[in-house]
Amino acid sequence: MINQLSWKVGGQQGEGIESTGEIFAKALYRLGYHLYGYRHFSSRIKGGHTNNKIRVSTEKIRSVSDDLDILVAFDQETIDVNFEELRQGGIIIADEKFKPVNPDDTKAKLCVVPFTKIATELGTSLMKNMVAVGASSAALGIPLENYHPIVKEIFGRKGDKVVESNIQAIEKGAEYFNREAGGPIDDFTLAPGDGKQRMYMIGNDAIAMGAIAAGVRIMSAYPITPASEIMEYLIDKLPKFGGTVIQTEDEIAAATMAIGANYSGVRAFTASAGPGLSLMAESIGLAGMTETPLVVVDTQRGGPSTGLPTKQEQSDIMAMIYGTHGEIPKVVMAPSTVEEAFYDMVEAFNIAEEYQCPVILLSDLQLSLGKQSVDPFDYNRIEIRRGKLMNESLPEIDKNEGFKRYENTPDGISPRTLPGMKNGLHHVTGVEHAETGKPSETADNRKVQMDKRLRKLRHLKFETPVHIDAKHERPDLLLIGIGSTRGAIEEAMMRLENEGVSVNHAHIRLLHPFPAEEMKPLIEKARHVVVIEQNATGQLAGLVKLNVGGRDKISSVLKYDGNPFKPAEVYKECKGVVSHASHV
Amino acid sequence: MPVTFKDFRNKVRPNWCPGCGDFSVQASIQRAAANLGLTPDSLAIISGIGCSGRISGYINSYGFHGIHGRALPIAQGVKMGNRDLTVIAAGGDGDGFAIGMGHTIHAIRRNIDITYIVMDNQIYGLTKGQTSPRSDMGFKTKSTPAGSVESPLSIMEMALTAGATFVAQGFSSDLKDLTSLIEQGIQHQGFSLINVFSPCVTYNKVNTYDWFKEHLIDLNDIEDYDPHNRVAAMQTLMAHNGLVKGLIYQDNEKKSYQDIAPGYSQEPLADTNIQLTEDQFKALVGEFM
Ligand SMILES: Cc1ncc(C[n+]2csc(CCOP(=O)(O)OP(=O)(O)O)c2C)c(N)n1
Ligand code: SF4
Ligand SMILES: [Mg+2]
Question: Which among A200, A253, B77, B166 could disulfide-bond with A261, CB atoms 3.0 to 4.6 Å apart, if both were Cys?
Fold first, then answer.
């Protein structure tokens, strides 16, 4: 019996690879296993190699695995492309139809199953994915009854006959595999799951659900990979709450429409990726200058320009912090797990309204699209705070003065009224303005208003600006990361610790304003600091050096080939830093 | 006490040049608002950047002076957030037909119930006199010293082809007519585009008040002109090279975006309770289990 295993299905895009993974995963997470998925896909809609890798474990995992135990192949390309990843002793389960060839049978065993033929005999070749699911389940020894409710949920609408033949396809696939392989393979038999019910979702689902929990009623957005699922979820959900998604003509309209909606008093936001965020730069500055709450989600993908639109990267860090002209208060937060993505989204709106400024929620492709099992979210953790938003009963104002929307208060945050409110009338402009909002270019006023705006974030309350795992007072290594690399870093850390290297881990959750206070002692006490990030220029390392220092002991581990970090890669690079250092 | 146009005045002195056409647009908006019985609290004017864009600061109402070319998406967001507000977007010809043209076309076809007033002076005023998409060919400006070599946009025709439900053109000299067009625009259920010939007395020495008086055809003077006939509207515009004033076209059949967006609340969204109930939350979570 084993505690974790990696399974991958591959074929041509548009061939049902997605649904194969989906159904297999459903049975597993309902049995109480923890799952972590990774989709490899290209910008093509049909054709092109695609694969879906799922890691299954009896314990919580937050990273892709280093290697692969089982590869399910619908074509030879899948075998050729993924063979290297297979571990010694792994198996390939392949469709007989393409006459699969095993590149090296001393490494992996090939088990040929007639996916297409069995499916066709049962009525339609479309069910070949069900046959593959059946064969996979047989290898793992998963009882097939688990699929009955799942198949009913998916195909129930199409009638009993369709349900019945899909179940048969699963059973036939399992039977065939068992005959060929002589029953479940010991090496692949998983210890039982804990039976706990979890959610199975991508980060974008959590972000979108977080928006609903935050009370969002308008999303204005322009489609882009890997952000579109957020919009898709809300297109379905918002109308049920009286709200709406508006697909705008571009991202400038998306951001400015969200600004207009927030100004009117409704919680609104937009979500995009690098190219869209570049277009929004001026709008984000407008939100900062007019102190209008605004939430923008950036699901990072490979840049620059169109870059690697379907691949993992974390290269928008600097652009998100600095990407507008002039100087504004702005918050950039970076969830590192699906749970955090949900709760952070609610908090993003609270912060945007409390501090009356733009908030950027920085995700990355692996966090946004990697499907994983998650403990059900907690209703009691959802809190809505709207800061100094005034209610209707306001004292009468002098008509010629208007309401002091930009009153110079000690904390820099001014009372906010909404259009429609009696006695709250004021002007808003991106031009420098006085307390009433009317344009003013005097030197004195400029300084007062600039200081007021920038003062707002001085006492920003943020629950966990850095996720710190520091067991050691003076560790050999401090690993610093951000976003979806958290799991890979945690696993690398475990391996290093097992080898006697003492390691602390700091995962940055609040990127701007930078949590220098929290980071300083951690860096000072570590012998070496390794910043692990998915870009080519070490942007996060640069920020650490800028805000905290420690230049002489910081090194970078970078990856920018489009794929997420694997634990072994982080481990190897960090190991290199330690052993190199011990030689000098 | 009934509202009068004075309720929409504030003490801010416009920094427009004496004689600028935008003064009349300001006055017309104030009068139209008063005539319709609006209150300053219930009116939001969203403007772009340019001499014209300053208008939101010169009217006693809620106002948002945004960024160049983006008055329309901001205004649409305001209206969608609070459908009870009267929302006017305003700006220049550069703002709406150059940098913001994408938004103009899409606001027209989206048909959210706001009124868009363009102060069209065929020039960039604020940046001191460069050519605009509305400048005539051969028009000499700072950026086209030898005369513009690009064709001007036929904006009213363009609006018709984009599916506009309310298209009108006014002239700064005719305060009464302009006020009436703005009133009709505000009352129209859907997106209203009102292009106003609003002379720049400083940088446009060709398209002056006198020039417009000489060239503009009043649609009221065209016998049997029917503003509900799209084909006739297009023909009239083409026949007169777009130099007409009055209500050009109105479609009272097509429903506004707010009225057809599925599920969209009848109550202003800004007033609704946003806290999820535990049951709603559990249902959302359950979908992923
Ligand atoms: C993004 C951006 N580009 C350029 C400018 C400079 N700018 C300000 S107003 C303007 C054009 C003004 O022309 P128009 O919109 O016709 O307004 P008018 O001044 O004529 O009323 C320009 C180019 C700016 N403010 N923002
Ligand atoms: S420059 Fe022209 S548009 Fe600007 S205020 Fe003066 S007259 Fe009006
Ligand atoms: Mg102009």
Answer: B77
